[in-house]
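Structure tokens please, single chain.
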Amino acid sequence: MSVLHPDLLTADAEGAIPVRFVGPAGPVDEALQGWAEANGFRGKPGQMLVAPDGRGGIAAVLVGAGETFDPMSARALPAKLPPGLYRLEAEPMDARKAALAFLLGAYAFDRYKARPDRDRVRLVAPDGLDLAATARIASACALAREMVDTPAADMGPLQIETIAREIAAEAAAAITVVTGASLLEENYPAVHAVGRAAAPHRAPRVIEIGWNLERADLPLVALVGKGVAFDSGGLDIKGAAGMRNMKKDMGGSAHALALGRLVMQTNLPVRLVVLVAAVENAISADAFRPGDILNSRKGLTIEIGNTDAEGRLILADILTRAGEHSPDLTLDFATLTGAARIALGPDLPPLYTDDEALAADLLDAARAVGDPLWRMPLWPGYRGALDTEIADLRNDSAAWAQAGSVTAALFLQRFAPTTGAWAHMDIFAWNPRARPGWPEGGEAQALRACFEMLTRRFGHNKASVR
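Here you go.
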């Protein structure tokens, strides 16, 4: 499992170079002001200027903050600063948030590169920062990103299970795994149908972690993740461009597992169930077909209109399983629809819930930690797009509804637990463009927002970075 380099944050400030976040008014230091003016530094977001000390070293680094400083802009620092030790000059709360952003920006996926370790940019921990809690949050995000970045050949259903077992063992949590033909015996028919075409060593499976379940006095939280290790589209095969990055289609499982690990490491006072369906949507003579009618764990039948709408099928079974625990709160994560990207782009994941309090709490938490979400409607007028003549519902909504992310969420709602609040995040889990602090590749989305919401609801907020 991914861990952060232990020396990225340090309490030792000796010799640290100051990093000063500067707005349009410019530096207050007269010498730095002249240097800034001479080099065209105007405090704009994205600008950075190294000021020499006259002895071949660095006196300070000026970073453009714009009119309003966004601590998440500190994600760019590990990629832009020369190697060395730095300290942030900012208000205490902003500095703590910027320190977490720094750790997020230090992530690099270099598992397959034959090169020595780079000289590292290191940061002095700001006053008041809970170093362990900050590192846990950054490590959770790094785990999700590393799982998404890893090619499907090395991140199949078995590897997802292996990571889940390591997480469970670390927390002394219970874990069960149902694999292959046993999925039919244990009543996960939709998961089996989607994954049965894969090679035997990549057989489908349902992974369930249970933690603190003996504590009946605590609220129960269920985390559910879509784990399609690779999505060919099935018999409705994707084109080359659409298939290129489908190693990331297990991003929902990566988020559920990373968030679950974070909850357990923080010892939040909850009971926790983490459910992941790990499959490969492959093509073989035994692949499920357009026109097939699948059974589901809930007993509802599903007509297959398109085998490339497979994520909602496996989620149907494990959302039903989550409901059997009578959770007080259920959060599901899935790289579910391209329609979500058309609606909101790659950086802003849609949030679906019919619980007003949960929506407000999640959106407030998202704003507080700089991990954006945008609420989308579970519009009942589109429920008819899931109707079909010969089954209880269809997996591809009728074309007249057009709103593919909304209708996918409405499909999931039919299977979501009813004992408590439920929210669905249609994440992209990917940065499509490379920029300092945001390399192209896997991204953790909604993970920090959900953890912030959970800590506010269920525990003393010691783990939050504010």
